[in-house]
Amino acid sequence: xxxxxxxxxxxxxxxxxxxxxxxxxxxxxxxxxxxxxxxxxxxxxxxxxxxxxxxxxxxxxxxxxxxxxxxxxxxxxxxxxxxxxxxxxxxxxxxxxxxxxxxxxxxxxxxxxxxxxxxxxxxxxxxxxxxxxxxxxxxxxxxxxxxxxxxxxxxxxxxxxxxxxxxxxxxxxxxxxxxxxxxxxxxxxxxxxxxxxxxxxxxxxxxxxxxxxxxxxxxxxxxxxxxxxxxxxxxxxxxxxxxxxxxxxxxxxxxxxxxxxxxxxxxxxxxxxxxxxxxxxxxxxxxxxxxxxxxxxxxxxxxxxxxxxxx
Amino acid sequence: xxxxxxxxxxxxxxxxxxxxxxxxxxxxxxxxxxxxxxxxxxxxxxxxxxxxxxxxxxxxxxxxxxxxxxxxxxxxxxxxxxxxxxxxxxxxxxxxxxxxxxxxxxxxxxxxxxxxxxxxxx
Lengths: 311, 122
Ligand SMILES: [Cu+2]
Hints:
The complex is a heterodimer of chains A (311) and B (122). Chain A is α/β, with parallel strands linked by helices and 311 residues long. Chain A has one domain: Metallo-dependent phosphatases (Purple Acid Phosphatase, chain A, domain 2, 4-Layer Sandwich). Chain A has nine helices and 13 strands. Chain A is globular and about 50 Å long. Chain B contains two helices and eight strands. Chain B has helices at residues 5-10, 15-28; strands at 33-38, 41-43, 46-50, 53-59, 67-69, 85-90, 94-100, 107-113. Copper (II) ion (CU) is lined by residues 65, 100, 102-103, 106 of chain B.
């Protein structure tokens, strides 16, 4: 966190404020390889942007109907309406997994129906809830046809190299998230030969840093993955899974997790388990949201703005 | 969707059917094994039963869990939503390590002992 202070002039307090108050709407600007938070979403949009703006949504859990939010499809729709109402149309959206709650065809259909109303291209990575159909193939058939392995891939946009990873398929007893040898080899090959000045955006469902080991909030072989990215001046890691905003800066790497559009989860260690957190009705939409990410070519500044559904 | 016979009779069934199935288990098995899932923990974490026992896991959390053997030694459960149960009858003595395939930090074990008169070990 201290790197954040003197490199970028963003105070620790500001970051903590963001962790406390911001929603899943995240706006990034890249600056000299170090992300810079512009503040709330409205403020960020007011700034002139000529580079690349994209959105992150996560953990829509379509099909979830428990007390923490009996209508997860409804709050996803609210999030997508927020996206559609943005004054500046983002280039595309990434969805960092747990599209559905139970991997049912109908849940995927319902999610697609709502998300497609954004009229944006969506780049998905799967959460563990998207792999619980008996044959574990629905996600792959719908979203992973052009991808490698269980759904990993990369693409380029405005000079930024995006890499979508899968750490939710091959989970081991007693372990955390897992990328696996095949995917790690692919990643090493994928980034080899790219210029060190290429900004990298790495996205996956489970955090690629250990947020809280006791609750499984980390990925066993993420250090190996990040070791392939050492030479790059700007690496941004975007994750979901923990249904709350967290941010950490380590050297050239910025880690960030987005809010869910379905239900909040407790802060690490503050509850008996990481299960869905029931909050008063008027608080729920302050704890759900989307993220807006902005890359400015000349300023080289990456900014994330988390924006709640309400408040 | 393919499911073990016993599991499908319990999973997603109305409460009446669940009770009926439980009664059936009680009649068929002298020592039925029960494991509850509360707050992302298997309780009991380790369970010892006689060969032939049907073990039933019941999810009492507000989130989905799933049972899988660490080395595929028994058939994995379908995704278990709140109050869903999954049952498996262990006929072969041995130690069966298992975990939740959504939350792999959740682990447990079933030790199956030979019934009297049998020397079967694993
Ligand atoms: Cu679980």
